[in-house]
Amino acid sequence: MPTFFRNIYLFILICLFFGCRDNTSHLFTSLDEGRTGINFKNTIFEDEALNVLNYTYFYNGGGVAIGDINNDGLPDILFTGNMVKNRLFLNKGNFKFEDITEKSGIAANQGWCTGATMVDINGDGLLDIYICRSADINSERRKNLLFINNGDLTFTEEAEKYGLADVGYSTQAVFFDYDKDGDLDCFIANHSLKQYTTGAQNNPALRNQRNPDFADKLYRNDNGHFTDVSKEAGITSNVFTFGLGVSVTDINNDGWPDIYVTNDFSEPDYLFINNRNGTFSEQLSKQMDEVPLASMGCDAADYNNDGFVDLMTLDMLPESNEGQKMHNGSENFDKFQYLFNQGFYYQYSRNMLQKNNGDGTFSEIGQLAGVSNTDWSWSALFSDFDNDGNKDLFISNGYVKDYTNMDFLKSTMNSVIQAQQGGGQATSEKDYINKMPTNETPDYMFQNNGDQTFTNRSNEWGFDQKTVSSGTAYADLDNDGALDLIVNNTNGLAGIYKNNSRTLLNNNYLKIRLIGDSKNTGGIGSKVKLYCGKQQFYQEEFPVRGFQSSVDPVLNFGVGKHTVIDSLLIIWPNDNMQILRNVKPNQLLTLKIADAHAKWHYDTTIIKNEQYFSTDTLNSMVHVENNFNDFTVQSLLPNYLSRQGPCLVVADLNKDGLDDIFFGGAKGQPSQIFIQNSNGTFTKKAEPAFLKDSASEDVAAEFFDADGDGDMDLYVGGGGYEFKDNDPALQGRLYINDGKGNFTKKENAIPKMSISTGCVKAADINGDGKMDLFVGGRVVPGKYPEAPESKILLNDGKGNFRDATASVAPGLQNIGMVTDAVWMDINKDGKPDLIIVGEWMPIKVFINHNGKLVDESVDYIKFPSNGWWNRIYAEDMDGDGDKDLIIGNYGLNTQFHCTEKEPMTMYFKDFDNNGSVDPILCYYIDGVSYPAASLDDLTDQLPSLKRKFPEYKDYATATIHDLFPDSQLKDATVLKAETMQTVYLENQGNKGFLLHKLPLEAQYAPIYGITSIDANHDGKKDLLLCGDNTWTRIKFGRYTANHGVLLLGDGKGNFSYVPQFKSGLKIRGNVRSVAAVKDKDKVQIVVGINNAKALSLHVK
């Protein structure tokens, strides 16, 4: 053979050899139809009779169910179709599948099929198939289907016989034993229709109306026949119920399964807690602070290996700036407030990761975790896809026709108006649908970093194809110990993704098959925990997960490089338990309920007795906020500025050795003095002088001896945003103590300075023995973010103060929007130095040189420190004799993750010359800084920009330089924030402050209250951090994940987080102040909460 032909022949052989092998360069390989034999395609056909205009969920897609239907050890696959037949594929091994749809009979009764699950309903050891149906106006064609496995790869439909032919508009069903009688009951998530997608605002009373076709259902298994017990069991629904996802899990770890249902549109999700008596109580508002606005799929799993089940719920927020701008209209802040007041819950458009605190509450940390923005998302699946011991997260997404595109909506509205006015031809439904853009996006795959956060590995792990995906499931299709993925795509071939982790990573695993008793052969509801050293790995046997799908019942644990599993604990649904020790990984282990003879006892009283804090409500110490909408003053504000109270300051006012409290009131509410009693309680003391000044909003105060008579006098600073600039209510006030705790206002003691105050701090600045004041200006009302005046006030010793800012510290005059400050002797020269923090400010250090304050920040703060600082606290945390700093920032659980290289910026000036300040907030997305505001919100403030951006797509990629020419920007002021982290700064004397990171829990939310306390009685100072902020833009949502964070200190400047169930802290609300209050023997911590009653925390 000539060399040329021999080379060609060899080349062809090589191509054929490698072409027949799967590409294993990524963690997952997409296998095509030729490789697997799976050619299912959920094709949708729009026509005049059935389309997205008359059925809202026309494009929601189909589901997937996985299970071994013939008990040959290989998981088989069912796909549901909406307008095509359901298909059943038998696994023949090595990713080869046989289509047995026709033989099996599962497509005999079709209809619009949605969710599916495999379950052994009759206890014969064979998996049956339950399929939900929807869409059809004819209820007969909506009846859900139950296919009983005949044992010969054929099925017989018997839903009517079992009482499970539900005629609702069904999304998904889940089987579980809710009453612990040993058999499997059924919950079905149903949904309403398009006429109820709107109307909540105009007619909230409709929440009291119920339609059985829309209502979620609970069916009790009564000896093999199912009875609808929804009403008597407390399963509530109404005409706004749009159930799209359901997770059954023991969410409170009491041994009884609970139910979480995700709802689309205005109706919030439902959290049905099992009362252990055959009934449920809906407790969403008691346990969660906010949920998605348009909740879709969900999954419940212990993603952070702490032994508690967490919850992921999906929404529609895009990752890209362009996607966000094309889908965001006006925020309509007032509409949301109205719905909140009408009993609808706090709902915001983004994915949410609810971290289970183990105490009946959750902290929503999806933004911090990096999983909040995945576009129009459907299915969420937690599983350890790389077998490293941490559960990763897969999210499917996409939509066939994106009718939420703002340009499409605007164009359609214009066409309708023109037609109504006789100026144009009405658009047909077909043309209307054809004009809708398609939203095809790659699915998301997030790798769990093992530190509560995730990294997007979609491209690296092989998910770079643009699809419209819906239902998904995982299974080890080839029994190699790595979980593969199965995806139901709309208008595209189903996705089969082979997992290559066993080849690429070679981490260890353990597979577990459960064999229950005759009424629950799969052991549904069982719990399995593995222990390897200090690590634990926890899963529950509830196969229904994600969206309209159920996964393979065989549990798959990744254990990383562990070569032995120290112990394995299984708790069966009847609370029987078994422990196995020294289990080898990399095997399939079969566990049988018949081998479990011991009993597991759920006991939470031990934990409660070991908590660090107990909490009392101080019913008389209540802050009552006045109603004021800051956004009516400046519509582009990032947050409210009128809700900064209450302030709390502490001193012994009557010289009885007990700390007393000043409690600042809101506008229209007098501030109050509380005298401490010998038993640690407080008595409110009438102060007529405070009543006269109740027009002010008292947000800052300081006790100090102003007149040198040895008792504590009081300076009070008015603040807030609901005043005009230079309003008399903003004037600082001095109240003189008569030595017995009675206060009289000293007129004209303070020079005229109507400053909306951020803080006031006292120190003897010039060494004359008289206490002077620093008054930090917080904001100029109506002109955010202009820098207000801050002042140095020198005392003549008789309580008369003069403005000495120009001579003592000219650099303080307009230093920024000051939120807090602290005096401390940094350089140990015996003189108080001043450290200041604020919004859009760096940490500023002013060293006292013989009564003159000189800015020497550069010598002490040696890191990029511009932030949204709220609070500063000084204490010796490392036991070296000097005070260190803990500074509360906004946290990392936000949309804006700013750094020195990619800072958040604020451009401001009067851009349109109408006499008002226009603040333009910008932050980075994918390496580019964009304005945060939607086009509608921006042009409401700056109408002239409408001409520049007539369509949303024109604005979707615009930067600040596209909004304004350089000639307009050159005289604009630019502020920046480079960090949002709450930090601990170690005082190293003349070397400055060394930055230390705090545990991630310190970054859950903005911090407004900080104090130290010895919580564990080890003689070392611990930290309490409190905060939250709910008065923010709808776009960003509420910041509420901090329920009071206790950090134990080791005395060397290192801190460890105490989980909420151990700390005992369950603080909810906008904490604005925290103060340690001493009595003769101990300390209690008083927590001031905006528009709420104060709390008293007691160390046990």
Structure description:
The strands form 19 sheets. A 5-stranded antiparallel β-sheet has the order 35-34-37-38-40, with no helix packed on it. Strands 54, 55, 56, 57 and 58 form a 5-stranded antiparallel β-sheet that branches. Strands 1-32-31-30 form a 4-stranded antiparallel β-sheet. A hairpin with a 5-residue loop joins strand 44 (672-676) and strand 45. The protein starts with a helix and ends with a strand. The relative contact order is 0.08. The longest helix has 17 residues, at 3-19. It has 1100 residues and is mainly beta. It is built from 22 helices and 73 strands.
Structural features:
73 strands, mainly beta, 35% strand, 5-stranded antiparallel sheet, 1100 residues, disordered N terminus, 22 helices
What is the structure about, briefly put?
This protein is mainly beta and 1100 residues long. The protein is built from 22 helices and 73 strands.
Fold topology:
Layout: H1 3-19, E1 28-31, H2 33-36, E2 64-67, E3 76-79, E4 87-93, E5 96-99, H3 101-104, E6 112-119, E7 128-134, E8 145-149, E9 155-157, H4 159-162, E10 170-176, E11 185-190, E12 217-222, E13 225-228, H5 230-233, E14 243-249, E15 258-263, E16 270-274, E17 280-282, H6 284-287, E18 291-292, E19 298-301, E20 310-313, H7 321-325, H8 333-341, E21 347-348, E22 352-356, E23 362-364, H9 366-369, E24 377-383, E25 392-397, H10 406-420, H11 429-434, E26 441-442, E27 444-448, E28 454-456, E29 466-467, E30 469-475, E31 484-489, E32 495-499, H12 501-504, E33 508-515, E34 527-532, E35 535-540, E36 555-560, E37 565-571, E38 576-583, E39 588-592, E40 598-599, H13 605-609, E41 613-622, E42 648-651, E43 660-663, E44 672-676, E45 682-685, H14 688-692, E46 698-704, E47 713-718, E48 733-737, E49 743-745, E50 756-763, E51 772-779, E52 791-795, E53 801-803, H15 805-808, E54 817-824, E55 833-841, E56 844-849, E57 852-855, H16 857-860, E58 867-868, E59 871-875, E60 884-888, E61 904-909, E62 918-925, E63 928-931, H17 935-941, ...
Parallel strand pairs: 18-21, 33-39
Antiparallel strand pairs: 1-32, 2-3, 3-4, 4-5, 6-7, 7-8, 8-9, 10-11, 11-12, 12-13, 14-15, 15-16, 16-17, 19-20, 20-22, 22-23, 24-25, 25-27, 26-29, 27-28, 30-31, 31-32, 33-36, 34-35, 34-37, 37-38, 38-40, 41-73, 42-43, 43-44, 44-45, 46-47, 47-48, 48-49, 50-51, 51-52, 52-53, 54-55, 55-56, 55-58, ...
